[in-house]
Design goal:
Elements: H1 2-20, H2 27-40, E1 45-46, E2 53-57, E3 81-87, E4 89-91, E5 94-95, E6 98-105, E7 108-110, H3 118-137, H4 144-157, E8 160-162, E9 197-199, E10 202-205, E11 212-213, E12 216-221, E13 224-227
Antiparallel strand pairs: 1-4, 2-3, 3-6, 4-5, 6-7, 8-10, 9-12, 10-11, 12-13
Helix pairs in contact: 1-2, 3-4
């Protein structure tokens, strides 16, 4: 499957980033190493405003901005820090779309379950839980709007807020950016009527200065939800 191949490029790049990122690097360094790895692994371009890696750290992890306006800051990674990376590789007009929040402790990225900062660990685990709840909730007949209302309610019940600048939680995977449809109110298209869709809640605990993001691409196969 071509889409699985491109998504694997993004997943493998995050694995590489986990092993490579260390304190003292700038966000520009991280963006460069991610975009270089995406191309090394087979991407031929970046579909979202020609940016392969959107990178934020610290209190900038709550920032939600269009790729048209994104600027990589000159922030330096601290000994103990939080980073979000959102990747947009493309190969032969096929998209990948994948995001993760990473935790740096004592200068290196640690496994999620080894994070000693309880607030950050809770945020990452909440993201994982949101994906699990979404998977249990959806069917091919679930509309994008149904998913929007249900998951925003779940986010609120968990004590978090939706940070997305448009308020949505994901979008369809297509060939042209302008053709995307979103997990938003008013969109009555059924999830099963698109080939692939992302689920990418960008959340923060109310009153906190830190944000979390986790993005996967999903699709239905014989009525069963699958992760790309």
């Amino acid at each position: 499957m071509e889409y699985k191949e491109v998504q694997k490029i993004a997943k493998d790049t995050i694995i590489y980033a986990r092993k490579t990122i260390q304190s003292g690097m700038t966000l520009a360094d991280i963006r460069e190493l991610c975009e270089k790895k995406l191309m090394e692994l087979g991407a031929d371009s970046f579909w979202y405003w020609d940016i392969g890696a959107f990178v934020f750290s610290g209190d900038e992890t709550t920032i939600s901005v269009s790729g048209k306006e994104y600027q990589t800051s000159n922030r330096i990674i601290n000994e103990n820090d939080i980073i979000t990376i959102d990747l947009s590789p493309q190969k032969n007009s096929i998209w990948g779309d994948y995001a993760r929040t990473l935790i740096v402790e004592n200068g290196v990225v640690v496994d999620d379950d080894m994070c000693s900062n309880e607030e950050w660990k809770k945020g990452i685990n909440t993201e994982k839980n949101l994906h699990a709840i979404m998977r249990e909730f959806v069917t091919p007949q679930t509309t994008f709007e149904d998913l929007y209302y249900h998951m925003n309610k779940v986010i609120e019940e968990h004590g978090y807020i939706n940070l997305d600048f448009l308020g949505n939680l994901g979008h369809s995977i297509v060939k042209q950016k302008s053709d995307r449809i979103y997990i938003e109110k008013g969109n009555t298209t059924c999830l099963g009527d698109v080939a692939f869709f992302t689920f990418e809640p960008h959340i923060s605990m109310s009153g906190s200065k830190y944000g979390y993001k986790r993005e996967n691409i999903y699709y239905f196969k014989k009525g069963k939800l699958m992760e790309l």
